[in-house]
């Protein structure tokens, strides 16, 4: 073990409520969702959108992200396991105990939230691209909180490294330092979020053009594509693949993001 390596072996739960353990991962999700909720609520208010049209947005997004991310993991990464035991998708058990929803895929979450927003705009009659632009401004903050949760869970870790900030993830049964890939992503997404706020402040007249949605998709999934090169494979079938599942799933989102960014710039020029 490198002398300067960081040994990471935190408790998964900081406290419990009525005997139910509250995990750091769940807290990060709650913080991410609450932050995104407040950001989009403020955007709606500034854009003079009726508050009654905002109220159902959180429920639609929460369900879309959760269901989409869960199904995305189960179907993209472990289809044989979950298709043979569908109940495990809803109530994941291990040795007879509920083990929590640690298997969540961001690509599935994107698909899930888009489907949820299609239902939302159908009900509220708001424009889809306008709604997506608003959501996209807050999405990187939520993504950063989820990756911090992954770090607390010692999951989605990087490959071995001899860099001084290498981390030994004890709960992942590591004995050598690995890249803290989760923190790389969290930091990148926070920077993307802050730059997105500046972009909105300067070009708020372009809201509804698809510019902000395109920016969000392009930046997040471009970074995601490259960071995968220093991540350990999540499932066995990725071994030997030139590009792993996360990279293949990122490519169409990168292309979609680039398309909407260019379209948004041209439309607003």
Structure, explained:
The structure is a single chain. The chain has one domain (21-155, 176-268). Helices cover 61% and strands 6% of the residues. The longest helix has 25 residues, at 128-152. The protein contains ten helices and six strands. By secondary structure, it is mainly α. 41% of the residues are buried. The strands form three sheets. Strands 1-6 form a two-stranded parallel sheet. Helix 7 (128-152) packs parallel to helix 9 and helix 8 packs antiparallel against helix 9 (211-227). The mean pLDDT is 88.
Helix content: 55-70%
Oligomer: single chain
Helix count from the secondary structure assignment = 10
Report strand %: 5-15%
Low-pLDDT residue intervals, each spanning 5 or more residues: none
User: Would you count the extended β strands for me?
Assistant: 6
Which whole number gives the mean pLDDT?
88
Backbone CA Rg: 19 Å
With strands numbered from the N-terminus, the spatial order across the biggest sheet is: 1-6
The N- and C-terminal alpha carbons lie at a distance of 55 Å
Biggest sheet statistics: 2 strands, parallel
Protein structure class: mainly alpha
Principal-axes shape call? globular
What's a concise summary of this model?
This protein is mostly helical.
């Amino acid at each position: 073990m490198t002398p300067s390596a960081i040994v990471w072996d935190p408790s998964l739960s900081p406290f419990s409520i009525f005997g139910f353990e509250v995990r750091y991962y769940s807290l990060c999700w709650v913080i991410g969702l609450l932050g995104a909720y407040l950001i989009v609520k403020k955007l709606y208010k500034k854009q003079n959108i009726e508050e009654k049209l905002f109220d159902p947005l959180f429920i639609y997004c929460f369900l879309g992200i959760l269901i989409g991310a869960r199904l995305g993991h189960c179907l993209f990464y472990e289809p044989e396991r979950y298709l043979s035991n569908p109940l495990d998708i809803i109530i994941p058990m291990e040795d007879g105990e509920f083990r929590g929803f640690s298997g969540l895929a961001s690509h599935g979450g994107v698909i899930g939230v888009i489907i949820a927003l299609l239902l939302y705009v159908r009900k509220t009659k708001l424009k889809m691209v306008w709604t997506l632009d608003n959501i996209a401004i807050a999405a990187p903050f939520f993504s950063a909180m989820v990756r911090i949760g992954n770090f607390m869970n010692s999951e989605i870790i990087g490959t071995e490294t001899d860099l001084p900030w290498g981390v030994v993830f004890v709960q992942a049964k590591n004995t050598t330092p690995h890249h803290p890939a989760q923190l790389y992503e969290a930091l990148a997404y926070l920077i993307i979020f802050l730059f997105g706020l500046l972009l909105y402040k300067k070009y708020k007249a372009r809201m509804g053009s698809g510019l902000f949605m395109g920016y969000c998709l392009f930046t997040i999934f471009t970074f995601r594509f490259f960071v995968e090169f220093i991540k350990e494979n999540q499932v066995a079938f990725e071994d030997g693949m030139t590009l792993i599942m996360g990279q293949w799933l990122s490519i169409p989102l990168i292309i979609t993001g680039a398309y909407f960014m260019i379209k948004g710039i041209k439309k607003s020029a």
